Amino acid sequence: MRDYGSDIIATQNIKFTNKEIELLINSLQYLLSVNLPIDEDFLHPYARLKDDLSKIQDNINEKIREAQSDKKEIKTEEALRQGTPSCETCE
Question: Cβ(24)–Cβ(53) under 8 Å?
Answer without folding.
Answer: yes
